[in-house]
Specification:
Blueprint (H helix, E strand, L loop, with lengths): L2 E3 L18 E3 L18 E7 L4 E6 L4 E6 L14 H4 L5 E6 L8 E7 L4 E6 L3 E8 L2 E9 L5 E6 L5 E6 L3 E6 L4 E6 L4 E7 L6 E5 L4
Keywords: Cell projection, Cilium, Cytoplasm, Repeat, WD repeat
Protein name: IFT121/TULP4 N-terminal domain-containing protein
GO biological process, one term: non-motile cilium assembly
């Protein structure tokens, strides 16, 4: 693997711990979505979401593929393995399973977001379809499907407690829903959105990015 050091100290503003002696970035594993079929464009990864509680990486592609990659980075207590030896860390990026979620019917998957407390995955594609995936008895299934049929989703984020989801549409509509599928509130911001959305740590504010850079 290739070792990259933070010589320019670009990460220093984000680290407030005098006990940290160094930060190392390395390429642990390279993955590909399913190979393209005849007369089809090569698939490109559009979105990634890491489930920190289960060690699952979700990857969505331009041709409608949605993959779940289970890593071996969790111990028996479901805690992420951390090694002091950097060389040892590079050996834990092995995928123990590789699942494909079928539901977007070839439409470009653009966003994916985990609900960590509920252990559910939410995905959306260019057609505007939103799918909530749940896991039961060793199988992932579509728990909920919704399509506003007016615009596509450019960002989704679950609140830190997993109770609310914020969905941002390209046409400027912002929708907040609950984890049972009901709508809590919605608002037309009057601006085109481009940069996704994020919850504040207290779950009482939402940050969105506009197409003009604000």
């Amino acid at each position: 693997s290739e070792m990259i050091t933070d010589e320019a100290n670009t990460l220093t503003p984000f680290v407030d711990d005098s006990s940290i002696k160094g930060i190392y970035i390395y390429r642990s594993r390279k993955i590909n979505l399913p190979p393209p079929v005849d007369d089809a464009q090569e698939d490109v990864v559009n979105c990634l979401a890491w489930n920190q509680n289960a060690g699952i990486l979700a990857a969505g592609g331009t041709r409608g593929h949605m993959r779940l990659l289970q890593t071996n980075m969790m111990n028996a207590e479901r805690e992420i393995l951390m090694e002091k030896d950097v060389q040892a860390i590079t050996q834990i990026g092995v995928f123990t399973s590789n699942l494909s979620l079928e539901g977007h019917n070839g439409h470009e998957v653009q966003c994916c977001a985990w609900n960590e407390p509920a252990q559910k995955l939410t995905t959306s594609d260019k057609s505007g379809a939103i799918i909530v995936w749940n896991y039961d008895k060793e199988n992932w299934y579509e728990e909920m499907v919704n399509n506003r049929n007016q615009s596509h989703v450019i960002g989704m984020a679950w609140s830190h407690d997993g109770v609310r989801i914020c969905i941002a549409y390209a046409d400027g509509t912002l929708i907040c829903g609950s984890n049972d599928g009901s709508r809590v509130w919605s608002k037309d911001l009057g601006y085109e959105l481009a940069g996704g959305c994020a919850w504040s740590p207290s779950n009482n504010m939402i940050l969105v990015g506009l197409s003009d850079g604000e």
